[in-house]
Structure formats: structure tokens, C-alpha cells
Amino acid sequence: MDREALADFLSRRRQELQPDDVGLPAGVRRRTPGLRREEVALLATMSADYYTRLEQRRGPQPSTQLLASLARALRLTADERDYLFRVAGHNPPDRSGPSEHVAPALLRVLGRLSDTPALILNELAETLAQNDPARALFGDATARVGWDRSEIYRWFVHPETERSRYPENDRNRQSRAQVANLRMALGTMGKQSRAGKLVDELLGRSPEFVELWHEHEVARRFADHKVLIHPEIGPIELDCQVLFTEDQTQALLVLTAEPHTDDEEKLQLLSVVGTQTFTTHPE
User: Fold this and answer.
1) Cα angle at 11 between 8 and 13, to 5 degrees?
2) CB 87 within 8 A of CB 63
């Protein structure tokens, strides 16, 4: 671990960011440029004291999980993230599979969306980041572990809960879309990738998946209009817009309601309902 290089790198990246780059209010006039140390700590869900010690070259070696959180908080590129891991004494993450590192450009957009649900997914439909409205609508999807992190997996293995968000007459279309998305991911990542392992897992667990898989539908499908059912608020009609990274490995989904409608009022009501009454699954 190179404490001096780590401290200097963290400090310089922190000073290059402004509050509005990460969705924070600017507040009162700042005496020094960039984010405050406590703001980086907040974004990385770590203690301000621990982060301060890292910048002061006296902190213990951070874990890979903590480094990943710091990379996201500081909006690092993949190359910058790899450098961060190396100076902290760890091997950088493998880039051959779906990345846990969220594209900084998508995070910047997500940080500016505070009044409508938005979330970032990778190729296997694992939620990498979400804003508060999305958390209120879908629950905290980033807390899931294992294959349950993938919406595709949950759709076929836990249908009794995962499909309750959709009207019954729309579930077949959603099933086909999930399979077509996974077929696309498999073609890009290869049979030996996590996409291939997910296919094998689902072939052994879901007869419905087996039937749809053999139809060989291939597409990146995100319905541009859908109805989602919230257990407290009821059905909400939403439009879905998607922004992909240049390499098509991550997507930002933004859900909006038509202005001046009951559905827009229902979205606004989410801020009141919050996450207390709905802790199941993300889109």
C-alpha cells in the first residue's frame, strides 16, 4: 500500500468535484475548492474520520468494498478506479464481466434527478445505483446479494413476488423481454461469463425460461410505457427512457409520468410514503 500516493490521489480527485457534480447542494461559500472530506465520506457511506485519516496518510488499508465505494463517490473512470486499487495494495477488479463500477457520466445524470425514479443497471439487470424516488418505488435493490441481484433471475425464480409489480396482462411481455435481454448479454459476454452461468442456472430452475430461451429472441428491451403497481399507492402509468453508456454495458432508466395527471401526483406521493412500506424489487 502506497499511503502517500493514495492520499494525494484522493485529495486531488476530491478537489476536482463540485457539489452539483454529485447531487449535493452547494450551501454556503466554500473556502477551498471541491468537495469537503465529510461529503466524500457521506457519498461513500464511510466515517468522515476514517476518510480523513486516508488523506492524512495514517489510515489502515481500505478493503476492496470500501475502495469501490470511494471510486463511485469520486466519480472515477475505470482506469482511475484501477489505479486507486493498486496504490491501496489490491488487484483491480476484473473487467471481463459485468462491471460493479458505475460509469461516471451516468452517475452525474442520476445525481441531477431528484424528483422522478431513476436507476442504473448492468447487462444482467443488476441495480448498481438508484435515487431516492426509485428506492421508494422499488425498494433498495443495491442491498441484494448473489443471483438475487439480477432482476432476470428474480423474475423466473421468485415470480410470486417479482411479478406482483406488473399487471397480469403484461407479465408475458415482460418475460420475453427479460429473456431477450439475457440472450443479448450472452452474445456479448460469451458462454464462460456470468451471463452464461446465469443462463445455466435458469435453465435448471425455470421451465418457463427454458421454453422462452429456445425461441432465440435477441434484443435490448426496455418498454417505453408501462404500468407499475405500488402496494400502497396502486397502479402508476409511467414512461421509461433509457440512456446507455458508449459500450452498451450499463443503462440509466428514468421513469416519468405524464404532467398534470393522477400518475404524476402518485409519483409525488412516493416522497411521503418513502421506503417504509415497500421493500421488494427494482425494475
Assistant:
1) 105
2) no
Where in the chain do CATH 1.10.260.40 domains reside?
3-87
- Give the residue from 57, 36, 37, 61 showing the smallest Cα distance to 47: 37
Q: Which CATH superfamily is domain 3-87 in?
A: lambda repressor-like DNA-binding domains (1.10.260.40)
- The fold for domain 104-273 equals Beta-Lactamase (3.30.450)
pTM here is: 0.70
Q: How much of the chain is helix, strand and coil, in % rounded to 5? A: 50, 10, 40
CA–CA distance, 181 with 174 (Å, rounded to integer): 11
Distance CA 62, CA 215 (A): 47
Question: Per the structure block, which three cell numbers stand in for 53?
Answer: 485519516
Q: CATH 3.30.450 occupies which residues in the chain?
A: 104-273
- Alpha-carbon torsion 221, 223, 227, 233, what sign? positive
Cβ-in-10-Å burial (0-12, 13-18, 19+) of 273 comes to: middle
List the one residue out of 6, 139, 130 whose CA is nearest residue 71.
Answer: 6
Q: Hey, what amino acid is at 185?
A: A
Question: Could you say which DSSP state residue 75 is in?
Answer: T
C-alpha cell at 132: 431516492
Question: Distance between CA atoms of 129 and 106, rounded to whole angstroms?
Answer: 10
pLDDT at 223: 63
Q: How many residues does the chain have?
A: 283
pLDDT (tens digit, 9 = 90+) per residue, 179-234?
999 999 998 888 989 999 999 999 999 999 999 999 998 887 766 789 999 988 99
